[in-house]
Amino acid sequence: MVKHQPLQVYERQLCLSCITGIYGCRWKRYQRSHDDTTKWELLWSFILLFTFCGLLFWSYFWWEAHNDYSEFNWFLYNRSGQWSDGTVPILATTAAGFTYVAFLMILALCHVALGQQLNLHWLHKVGVTAALLTTLAWVISVNQTWGQEWDVIFISLQATGPFLHVGALAAVTALSWIVAGQVARAEKTLFQVVVLLLYLAGLLGLYTVPLYITSPCIMDPSALKPRPDVIGHQGAPMLAPENTLWSFQRALQMNVTGLEADVAISVDGVPFLMHDHTLRRTTNVRKVFPDRQMQDASLFNWTDLQQLNAGQWFLQNDPFWTASSLSPNEKNLIANQSVCSLEQLLKLASYHNSSVVFRLRRPPVEHPSHFTWLNDTLQAVQQSGLHPSLVMWTPDEHRAQVRELVPGLVQTSLEKQSPESLNESGISRLLLRYNQVSTPEIRDFYHQKIILVLYTVNEPWLYSVLWCGGVSAVSSEAPHVLKKVPYPIWLMKPDEYLLMWVSADIVSVVVVIGIFIFQKYRMSGIRSYNPEQIMLSAAVRRSSRDLNIMKEKLIFSATPSQHASV
Question: CB neighbours (10 Å) of residue 307?
């Protein structure tokens, strides 16, 4: 009697070995398992998924917050007193963590698709935990120092929402291959129903997401307002030191319609341009006046201020990573910049017929100009020769008195008020941070003939969204970038967006149904073969040189009675 045992064919499964080896250090065949994943490993899978989603959100936040990196660094400077680019360590750790966790997520999905048991190695568990805790620490830190920046996420979705939806729909549609395989492979009906319902619920939710996506760029192109004016915020601080004469000249070369500056008043009554309360960050005061470096900038006289260099710090610190792109001539001009007076700025604006908006900081109580600060500033405006209609006056104090002294000034508010309140106060312009107004409010101000100026707008996507929303002007640190945006990045008619939405949903439905049908047919085909047929067919398809074949010998055994008969 001859007993036949099936031939066992073992192929070199290098891909599978790498997947299970890297994920769980299971490089050998006997270490793998098709058993159900333990509850402990399922918990770690959910932790991995949560970490991945958190890092994805965190990465998206910092991608869109690029518009305000300089603002973040300035906040850090106010806390530490030392200038450094605080975004570098955050971006580096975020990129490393996201790449690592995303790679583990891909490996985990491969395990599920191949029916392998999930068993994350303990070193990876430590790595995932470290990535999760680091991300949470960064989130808490940014929330305490820069909480207002979270609004950029909701604003950016007005520019990216329609396209993120299509990307998410494509990803979830592709995920149907794994889901369909799990449903077809599972033996428990309850498991099949739960997995299928969860997936379909998520898919249907994605299909209806566009109902909640709003963007001012989904509009009839004929209703698009004129291109918003660009005002040079502190000149062109990405190309030259902020609040210096060369910075404003560079901004004018970029065809800005206005200039914005920060104004303080020296101890001898000369208005000059300075953003910080001290001179430490943007001048060499530590070298020239080391004993006075912590003093308020307004406690220096104009003669002392003229001795300071206001450009070398830009080349040394390179706050916008642009110094390397400057020509030798530009670097020489920058290295010799001095503190700029308000009168110098106004005369430059008068020559180019450009408007000026400045934030005036009142001197301390012990300052000689504490009570005459408005008069000192108005005197500088009148002496400059710039027409008052080109000056946007922002201080709220004594507006009636200012109107009497210089009636032609454009009254501008730095505080958000209703259009009715602004009209009653005779204020025609409003200067706000871009996250302080919504699209309906922008349109309301426009209809009420209030000119809205939003700062600081450096990114083309943000400029495009505000343009579509109807903003009249923006203040920018990157006029050289916005100069290259002659039209919104994208503009779509509502009918076109509806067509894109419906088409994407239909394609997704067809692909998902097709994948489920194919997976069911594929799995049922595999189950219809017995092991001998599967192994022998594999041996026929592949050359023996490509296979490492272990065959169990045919065991010839005869019963004693058979031997006796022979």
Answer: 14
